[in-house]
Design brief:
This protein is an alpha+beta fold. The protein has five helices and five strands. Helix content is about 30%, strand content about 15%.
Length: about 200
């Protein structure tokens, strides 16, 4: 499974995630204690199922859990390798989530960014050109050529340390955190994007 910043089309820079030996973790979005409703097996043969969002690469997962695992919505679990009480893990796309998991997704993205602010601020510090005509910064909603150049010019003076500093130093960049959330959600929902900065597609597992 790829880490944050590993991209199908080399869009942007990856930042400084944990080492390769660290487990991939995910935040639980929804829990089906009686298993999937489309599973026609008798209830005693079905295991609890959870849906989760990867913290490093924003992968979407369906987890098969042990009975009485104690895992709940909002918990963080290891998915690669599978953690305690997790029987199996498979990647899914946005359409493969439950309605409740989809509703929880944006809250989880916001929480991951808030808990790892420096990692996402470093996207603005490290993002590079994708082609001669397109920069990774231009993939963020509302960032055109002028605003991109403002970021590039200002970061030459020194790295940004926080979202607040980005707002203060870069003229016109009023929502540096929110546009990241919007881009991540777009990458999670849309299957046919040419470039991906943050979210790994299900088939890349």
């Amino acid at each position: 499974m790829s880490e944050h910043g590993s991209r199908s089309d080399d869009a942007g820079d990856g930042g400084d995630d944990a080492g390769a030996d660290a487990p991939t973790t995910a935040v639980v979005l929804d829990l089906l204690p009686n298993g999937r409703p489309d599973d026609d097996r008798p209830a005693y043969q079905k295991s609890p199922v959870a849906y989760a969002l990867g913290e490093a690469e924003f992968g979407l997962y369906e987890l098969t859990l042990e009975d009485d695992s104690g895992i709940g919505i909002g918990d963080t679990v290891a998915v690669d390798p599978p953690g305690e009480h997790v029987q199996s893990v498979r990647s899914v796309d946005f359409e493969g989530l439950t309605g409740a998991a989809r509703s929880e997704l944006e809250y989880a993205v916001n929480d991951i960014i808030d808990r790892n602010e420096r990692r996402f601020v470093d996207f603005y510090n490290d993002a590079q050109a994708i082609t001669t005509r397109l920069h990774a910064l231009n993939l963020l909603p509302g960032i055109g050529k002028k605003l991109r150049n403002n970021v590039l010019d200002e970061r030459k003076r020194g790295p940004f340390e926080s979202f607040e500093e980005l707002r203060e130093r870069v003229s016109g960049l009023h929502r540096p955190r929110e546009v990241l959330v919007e881009r991540i959600m777009e990458e999670l929902r849309e299957e046919d994007l040419k470039y991906r900065i943050f979210a790994r597609r299900a088939e890349e597992s």
